[in-house]
What does this fold into?
Amino acid sequence: MTLNELDLKTEYLSLDSEFYDLTDPTPLDDPYLISFNPKAAELIGLDSNSADDPRFVALLNGTFIPKGVRPFSMCYAGHQFGHYAPRLGDGRAVNLGSINGWHLQTKGSGETRYSRMADGRAALPSSIREYLMSEAMHHLGIPTTRALGIIGSETKIVRNQIERGAIVMRMSPSWVRFGTFEYFYYFKEYDKLRSLADYAIKESYPHLQKDEDRYYRFFCEVVERTAKLIAQWQGVGFSHGVMNTDNMSIAGLTIDYGPYAMLDDFNFGFVSNKSDRAGRYSYGDQPNVSYWNLTMLAKALSPLIDQERMQKKLDDYGNFLYPDAYIDVMREKLGLETKLEEDAELITSLVGALQDAYVDYTNFFRTLSRYDGERMPLYDIAMNPLVIHHWLDQYDQRLAKESRLQTERQEAMLKRNPKYVLKNYMLQDAITLAKKGDFSMVETLLYIASHPFDELPEFERFAKETPEEHKNLTLSCSS
Ligand code: AMP
Ligand code: MG
It folds into this structure.
């Protein structure tokens, strides 16, 4: 399919007009292509040579609107750092419609009805970060939005310093957020709340459409998907940075990449968001915060669903849904095929050991994936190998209870423990070059992001421990 043949559906516009605002994108000046993502293009059946078509840049910039499309921005609310904000919404994103179940949206397309005091723009650095990381998460096997392409421009925007405006075209199976439900709950518009629940069920939980108890079941499945998602974040060492309820997907996806980070040395208390002084969204607190966010969702759904039943499900989240999901993720990382009661303890003591070892989280598991009883490679990568040593005693005992061959375990672990993750310092390098008009590193990182489990000898340097001076790079919300 060529760009001319793009046929986008806008079912969301059949909802009440309060759900959205028709919004014309405001183009950037002198736009240029930074990167096109053929893997995302494939998902929507777009020809891979579309990048060469000048209409591609125009599509992202909002100067080429496919026929039949009425661009719109969506309303939502949300708890931001614990405080309720009744009117957020797409302040800088414009939706074009969906194809093959993917809703296309440009981020940074100018002011909308929901922009409040802000400029509706997205800076080049954060746009590159979102473009690359959403792709990386997908290839790590974590549910996420995707990105079709990114453009830069000469438009100046004011952040901590003067930046250039950019636009990422994001794609998602759903853009409905916990905060979308909160919006209608707090304005006591319960009919619209119900329409939204019906819409979200049709969009993301279609198997529940005919279920008599569908609202309750829907809530249960959101809780379950969220448990799995957060367990995967914890497993891979991803810190989201801004887990406000407006950044929580009702479909259980990773959305809205801002000041995120992949852990360098393991640190339970790591806070990736410089603006988060209290550490509300630290890496280690993500499971607790997602529970809190789910309780806010339950409150918003209370006009539709019995609160006690929801509370019971929330209790399950804390008691076993999240813990079990996390243990399952970690079991796979540890190459354990059988499920034993004692695994929870092994994992808890590993987390404690990693905290004390000063060891690169990604490297630790990749190195462990080749473990054959020889401990030196693991001691070599830790500043405090003694704690690793004690933990390995436990691990050896546990491995003795496994029946599969060591080589099989290693093979399975190499498919679960990435060699490459996008650390902030790498992204920073790509951004510095991109600001000079050199997009080669964006392409390199896109390639690496798409092959996290492969051996890529030409990119070996990116698999090393983060250089000391670049560890724990944090970003602020506004970057
Ligand atoms: P975020 O933390 O990026 O998810 O954004 C939180 C809210 O602020 C959302 O409603 C965004 O649309 C809005 N927002 C963030 N940056 C801008 C901006 N530059 N212009 C307009 N709205 C923005
Ligand atoms: Mg957001």
About this structure: Residues 286 and 303 are 27 Å apart (CA to CA). Residues 88-92, 115, 118-121, 242, 247, 256, 258, 477 surround adenosine monophosphate (ligand 1) (CB under 6 Å). The chain has a mean pLDDT of 97.
